[in-house]
């Protein structure tokens, strides 16, 4: 036995001291903190924009075991923010991609990939093997599920979220008076009031900031330094360059899951509770009958024959999205703007009014064919209000939107 | 006279009020103002939409929006009954779910 090992009052090896020396030197962390990190296990729910920095910093810091849950594969439009994945891991499971990256970063960390959706059936069984959970998910149903599972198994929860330029972070269920997610948000928002990253967009460094702070709070909880955000909400606004920390209410005595007389004593159906699925994929709406819709291939055929002269293509996407790609004949009136216009104002912006051939059809198009259906309904109301007969002007939408156009008509058209 | 307050929106809630995050408002001081009475005032004066239900539901703020008074959770201050004072900042934050 070397002199080092025989003299030592801690269990760190010489190589561990070398590797982690720059954080060991920091007084509040020290050898005790490093031992706790090495003996700790952290479950990361979601291997996306938040999960990547959380996994990266925790593996780098020497957390002994990291579980990573994600049912999804890496896609090319993830890479601007999900920085552990790379071009070579596109179309492979995100949990595996993270495992590969972490093995390269720190081979002493045990990484357990779970290539599955976290559900009411498997959550308790997975979470029970971990000390603490980082919620890096992308939807309301999973957030309630993770919260309830953490309360039922007695684990602290470090929760982050982000959209566009903004991020939010809170540590839940960490100490006697600390609220859980349900204490703050007893009722889920209506699904149509929730915007996800696929619809609203998100700036990469914003999830980087929030994910890095989640990793920091995990380190503080695990090492016993203590969290700064237990019962506090941290707000980050990257556009305005502003951060704030908000004092939240204490644990609610009447909380359904962590209160005095809980009624949620086992996991429930969270997709039902939230009225939305446990992923951020966009679900196709079916508001219109097939006869009220036009296929991308039908519209392409109309164009090819030159019989689209009396047809106006109305693109209902936001101005910014219209700017990065559109069909040349399309007129852009965003859905939100359209709500405040009457038919005469809309018609004035459409072509074909003064030409020899007058307007006989409006085709609404959007990104994926959901908003365009709402636009058709809206246009019909406005036409009725203006007493325009549906015989003289038909209004349809393009099924599947520009995604379908790119898939079925023009492979060179950008997909996003 | 008027009660000058700042009304802030963030987390996407600003999309309900013309994408403007900070609004300076002067409320007529001929009456007491609570958050309860502020909500219809916001719907009438700030919301650039004909859908007030995006903010207000059953007379209160809809689920998914957190309300702060001077950076404190409104639940600690009486929620709808909180009496608004001059120079208060009332904040409506939409909860984010993305990641």
Automatic annotation (TrEMBL), chain A:
Superkingdom field = Eukaryota
- Respond yes or no to whether keyword Cell cycle is given for this record: no
Q: Which pathway does it serve?
A: tRNA modification; 5-methoxycarbonylmethyl-2-thiouridine-tRNA biosynthesis
Q: How is the cofactor bound?
A: Binds 1 zinc ion per subunit.
List the EC numbers from the record: 2.7.7.-, 2.8.1.-
Q: What InterPro entries does this protein map onto? A: MOCS3/Uba4 (IPR028885), Rhodanese-like_dom (IPR001763), Rhodanese-like_dom_sf (IPR036873), ThiF/MoeB/HesA (IPR045886), ThiF_NAD_FAD-bd (IPR000594), Ubiquitin-activating_enz (IPR035985)
Keyword entries, A-Z: ATP-binding, Cytoplasm, Metal-binding, Molybdenum cofactor biosynthesis, Multifunctional enzyme, Nucleotide-binding, Transferase, tRNA processing, Zinc
Enumerate the CDD domains for this protein: ThiF_MoeB_HesA_family
- GO terms for molecular function, please? adenylyltransferase activity; ATP binding; metal ion binding; thiosulfate-cyanide sulfurtransferase activity; URM1 activating enzyme activity
What cofactors does the UniProt entry give for this protein?
Zn(2+)
Any one GO cellular component localisation term in the record:
cytosol
Active site (UniProt): 197 (glycyl thioester intermediate), 366 (cysteine persulfide intermediate)
Q: Where in the cell is it found?
A: Cytoplasm, Cytosol
Instruction: Give every Rhodanese domain span.
Output: 307-414
Any Pfam family: Rhodanese
Q: Which residues bind ATP?
A: 49, 70, 77-81, 94, 138-139
**Record-annotated residues binding Zn(2+)?**
180, 183, 255, 258
Top EC group = transferase
Please give a single GO biological process term from the UniProt record. protein urmylation
Q: Which family does it belong to?
A: In the N-terminal section; belongs to the HesA/MoeB/ThiF family. UBA4 subfamily.
What does this gene product do?
Plays a central role in 2-thiolation of mcm(5)S(2)U at tRNA wobble positions of cytosolic tRNA(Lys), tRNA(Glu) and tRNA(Gln). Acts by mediating the C-terminal thiocarboxylation of the sulfur carrier URM1. Its N-terminus first activates URM1 as acyl-adenylate (-COAMP), then the persulfide sulfur on the catalytic cysteine is transferred to URM1 to form thiocarboxylation (-COSH) of its C-terminus. The reaction probably involves hydrogen sulfide that is generated from the persulfide intermediate and that acts as nucleophile towards URM1. Subsequently, a transient disulfide bond is formed.
| Name used for this protein in its record | Adenylyltransferase and sulfurtransferase MOCS3 homolog
Protein source organism: Plectus sambesii
From TrEMBL, chain B:
InterPro entries reported for this sequence: Beta-grasp_dom_sf, Mopterin_synth/thiamin_S_b, Urm1
Gene3D superfamilies, per this entry? Answer: 3.10.20.30
Q: What does the UniProt PTM comment say about this protein? A: C-terminal thiocarboxylation occurs in 2 steps, it is first acyl-adenylated (-COAMP) via the hesA/moeB/thiF part of the MOCS3/UBA4 homolog, then thiocarboxylated (-COSH) via the rhodanese domain of the MOCS3/UBA4 homolog.
Give the modified residues of type 1-thioglycine. Answer: 99
Q: Which GO terms describe its biological process?
A: protein urmylation; tRNA thio-modification; tRNA wobble uridine modification
Q: Where in the cell is it found?
A: Cytoplasm
Instruction: Please classify the protein's predominant subcellular localization into one broad category.
Output: cytoplasm
Q: Name one GO cellular component term.
A: cytosol
Q: Where is this cross-link: Glycyl lysine isopeptide (Gly-Lys) (interchain with K-? in acceptor proteins)?
A: 99
What does this protein do, in the record's words? Acts as a sulfur carrier required for 2-thiolation of mcm(5)S(2)U at tRNA wobble positions of cytosolic tRNA(Lys), tRNA(Glu) and tRNA(Gln). Serves as sulfur donor in tRNA 2-thiolation reaction by being thiocarboxylated (-COSH) at its C-terminus by the MOCS3/UBA4 homolog. The sulfur is then transferred to tRNA to form 2-thiolation of mcm(5)S(2)U. Also acts as a ubiquitin-like protein (UBL) that is covalently conjugated via an isopeptide bond to lysine residues of target proteins.
What PANTHER family does the record tag this protein with?
RURM1 PROTEIN
Q: Which family does it belong to?
A: Belongs to the URM1 family.
Specify the protein name.
Ubiquitin-related modifier 1 homolog
Q: What organism, scientifically named, is this protein from? A: Plectus sambesii
Taxonomy of the source species? Eukaryota, Metazoa, Ecdysozoa, Nematoda, Chromadorea
């Amino acid at each position: 036995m070397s002199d080092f090992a025989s003299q030592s009052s801690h269990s760190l090896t010489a190589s561990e001291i070398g590797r982690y020396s720059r954080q060991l030197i920091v007084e509040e962390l020290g050898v005790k903190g490093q031992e706790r990190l090495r003996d700790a296990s952290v479950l990361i729910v979601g291997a996306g924009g938040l999960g990547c920095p959380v996994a990266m910093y925790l593996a780098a810091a020497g957390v002994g075991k990291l579980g990573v849950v994600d049912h999804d594969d890496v896609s090319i439009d993830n890479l601007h923010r999900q920085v552990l994945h790379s071009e070579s891991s596109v179309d492979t499971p995100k949990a595996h991609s993270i495992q590969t990256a972490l093995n390269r970063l720190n081979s002493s960390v045990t990484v357990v990939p779970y290539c599955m959706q976290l559900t009411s059936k498997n959550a308790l069984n997975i979470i029970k093997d971990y000390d603490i959970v980082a919620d890096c998910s992308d939807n309301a149903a999973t957030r309630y599920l993770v919260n309830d599972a953490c309360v039922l198994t007695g684990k602290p929860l470090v929760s982050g979220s982000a959209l566009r330029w903004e991020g939010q972070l809170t540590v839940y269920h960490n100490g006697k008076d600390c609220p859980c997610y349900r204490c703050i948000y007893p009722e889920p928002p209506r699904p149509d009031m929730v915007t996800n990253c696929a619809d609203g967009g998100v700036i990469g460094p914003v999830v980087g900031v929030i994910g890095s702070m989640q990793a920091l709070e995990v380190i503080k909880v695990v090492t016993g330094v203590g969290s700064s955000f237990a019962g506090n909400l941290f707000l980050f606004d990257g556009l305005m360059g502003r951060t704030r920390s908000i004092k939240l209410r204490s644990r609610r005595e009447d909380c359904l899951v962590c209160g005095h007389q809980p009624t949620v004593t086992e996991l429930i159906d969270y997709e039902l509770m939230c009225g939305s699925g446990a992923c951020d994929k966009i679900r196709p709406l079916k508001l219109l009958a097939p006869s009220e819709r036009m296929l991308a291939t039908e519209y392409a055929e109309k164009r090819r024959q030159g019989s689209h002269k009396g047809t106006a293509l109305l693109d209902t996407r936001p101005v910014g999205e219209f700017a990065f790609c559109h069909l040349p004949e399309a007129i852009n009136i965003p859905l939100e703007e359209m709500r405040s216009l009457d038919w005469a104002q809309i018609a004035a912006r459409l072509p074909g009014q003064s030409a020899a051939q007058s307007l006989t059809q409006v085709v609404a198009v959007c990104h994926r064919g959901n908003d365009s259906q709402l636009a058709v309904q809206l246009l019909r109301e406005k036409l009725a209000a203006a007493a325009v007969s549906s015989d003289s002007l038909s209004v349809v939408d393009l099924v599947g939107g520009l995604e379908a156009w790119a898939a079925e008509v023009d492979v060179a058209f950008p997909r996003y | 006279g008027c009660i000058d307050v700042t009304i802030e929106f963030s987390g996407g809630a600003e999309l309900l009020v013309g994408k403007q995050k900070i609004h300076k408002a002067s409320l007529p001081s001929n009456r007491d103002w609570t958050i309860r009475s502020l909500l219809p005032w916001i719907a009438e004066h700030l919301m650039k939409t004909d859908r007030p239900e995006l903010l207000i539901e059953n007379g209160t703020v809809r689920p998914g929006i957190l309300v702060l008074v001077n950076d404190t959770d409104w639940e600690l201050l009486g929620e709808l009954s909180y009496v608004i004072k001059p120079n208060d900042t009332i904040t409506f934050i939409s909860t984010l779910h993305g990641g």
